[in-house]
């Protein structure tokens, strides 16, 4: 992908999904947008409305014939969605009509836009910052109301607002130190180094608090992964079906029915959750155990891989005191592990506890009757949810930039406190400023732009 960063082209694309619909919108934007509009569209009545308002008329072919009856809306720059002259044409939603309009636009000198190129122009023209642009994709892809609220807060510039006081402190500290380096002979007085260190430490703490939002922010955007772990025939697939409300996984009394990872989306307290049912894990080393064949071994390998990247692992323990398979090493360090007693309709909770020397599961459920499912979902919501305002950090790129800025500011504060030359502190503060600038898009390379906007749909 190669973007026109000079914005010399006029770009066009459908702004609504392809296919048959009542209305389809085709959008174009750029320096020739108004000239293209005047060549493509003819008003029914001259002077019926100002150009900035929606007017009805005809879309013209290159021979002057009418392609469609349409509504044309002009958004003059710089107060448009892209910051430059933009036109939207609402036509009847047939696929052929859309193609004819796009072909006509290309014939008039427009270029079909790359994914996300309209939003990129909004960033380049200062309409929104890069963090807000990333939120556009999050708004489109939101699966729950909480995910949508977080994305909309970011779209309204929430991250830039949250960064503003810390960026001001950073700039003030850098100005103080650089003034002394650039004008050593000026009577600037002695700097209060202890106050400067305290200010920088407070800035680092503020940035770290934003980093702390990143985990939940990514969960809201990408979905939290909840993996069902247990022995064959423990009731994992039945639980998956109960959680999603329909038969997503095949259930059979014979163990080993599930051989591959099966995923399904659910809403847990506003957090989108991917529930993953994996193959049952067993040990074939015991005397008399059936040997594990290649297909089952592959399923077990995938099960372990899924658990390794889980946010929550539900260890499914059927009645009878059977010990579930041990989790792979390190899982407790990266994921919350909840023990779930299954098949509660077959054995009372008290009996299940008495038949094992281990402590009782945190919740006992019956996927058949629904008993205990509300309690299980409440435990998941407590772990995955949030308190306070929706997070404004929701991508790995944003988290990395915030971490880099925080570390650089910490290093600068340490250099000042240790009495090291001011040049070292200035270097670290400049590094922090570059990280924040890259975060908001004021100093970012084309490769970063490609990585961000390649995930967008055409017309956004």
What does this protein structure show overall?
By secondary structure, the protein is α/β, with parallel strands linked by helices. The protein is 44% helix and 17% strand. It has 16 helices and 13 strands. The protein has helices at residues 33-40, 95-107, 117-124, 130-141, 145-155, 158-182, 193-212, 214-222, 236-244, 294-308, 331-334, 349-354, 373-384, 396-417, 422-440, 446-453, and strands at residues 11-14, 21-29, 41-43, 55-60, 66-75, 86-93, 111-112, 224-229, 262-268, 271-277, 312-317, 336-341, 363-364.
Low-pLDDT runs of 5+ residues are 250-257, 349-357
Shape: flat
- What structural category characterises the helix and strand content? alpha/beta
CATH homologous superfamily descriptor of the largest domain: P-loop containing nucleotide triphosphate hydrolases
- What order do the SSEs take from the amino end to the carboxyl end, as H and E? EEHEEEEHEHHHHHHEHEEHEHEHEHHHH
Distance between the termini: 15 Å
CATH architecture of the largest domain: 3-Layer(aba) Sandwich
């Amino acid at each position: 992908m190669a973007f026109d960063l000079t914005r010399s082209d006029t770009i066009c694309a459908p702004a609504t999904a392809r296919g048959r619909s009542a209305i389809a919108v085709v959008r174009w934007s750029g320096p020739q947008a108004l000239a293209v509009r005047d060549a493509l569209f003819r008003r029914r009545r001259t002077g019926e409305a100002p150009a900035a308002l929606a007017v009805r008329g005809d879309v013209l072919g290159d021979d002057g014939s009418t392609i469609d009856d349409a509504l044309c809306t002009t958004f003059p720059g710089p107060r448009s969605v892209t910051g430059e002259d933009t036109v939207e044409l609402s036509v009847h939603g047939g696929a052929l009509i859309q193609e004819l309009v796009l072909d006509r636009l290309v014939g008039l000198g427009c270029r079909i836009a790359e994914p996300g190129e309209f939003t990129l122009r909004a960033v380049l023209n200062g309409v929104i910052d890069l963090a807000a642009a990333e939120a556009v994709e999050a708004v489109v892809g939101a699966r729950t109301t909480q995910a949508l609220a977080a994305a909309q807060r970011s779209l309204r510039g929430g991250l830039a607002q949250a960064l503003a006081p810390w960026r001001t402190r950073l700039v003030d500290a850098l100005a103080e130190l650089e003034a002394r380096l650039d004008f050593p002979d000026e009577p600037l007085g002695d700097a209060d180094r202890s106050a400067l260190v305290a200010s920088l430490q407070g800035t680092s703490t503020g940035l770290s608090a934003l980093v702390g939002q990143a985990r939940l922010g990514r969960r809201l955007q990408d979905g939290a992964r909840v993996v069902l772990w247990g022995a064959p025939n423990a009731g994992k697939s039945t639980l998956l079906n109960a959680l999603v409300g329909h038969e997503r996984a095949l259930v059979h009394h014979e163990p080993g029915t599930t051989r591959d990872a099966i995923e399904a989306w659910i809403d847990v307290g506003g957090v989108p959750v991917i529930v993953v049912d994996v193959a049952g894990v067993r040990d074939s080393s015991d005397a008399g155990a059936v040997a594990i064949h290649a297909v089952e071994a592959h399923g077990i390998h995938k099960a372990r891989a899924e658990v390794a990247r889980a946010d929550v692992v539900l260890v499914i323990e059927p009645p009878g005191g059977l010990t579930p398979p041990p989790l792979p090493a390190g899982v407790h360090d990266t994921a919350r592990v909840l023990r779930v007693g299954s098949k509660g309709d077959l054995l009372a909770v008290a009996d299940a506890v008495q038949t094992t020397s281990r402590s009782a599961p945190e919740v006992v459920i019956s996927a058949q009757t629904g008993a205990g499912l509300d309690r299980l979902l409440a435990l998941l919501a407590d772990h995955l949810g949030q308190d306070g305002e929706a997070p404004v950090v929701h991508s790995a790129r944003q988290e990395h930039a915030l971490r880099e800025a925080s570390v650089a500011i910490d290093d600068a504060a340490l250099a000042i406190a240790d009495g090291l030359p001011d040049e070292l502190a200035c270097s670290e503060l400049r590094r922090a400023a570059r990280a924040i600038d890259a975060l908001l898009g004021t100093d970012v390379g084309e490769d970063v732009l490609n990585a961000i906007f390649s995930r967008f749909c055409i017309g956004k």
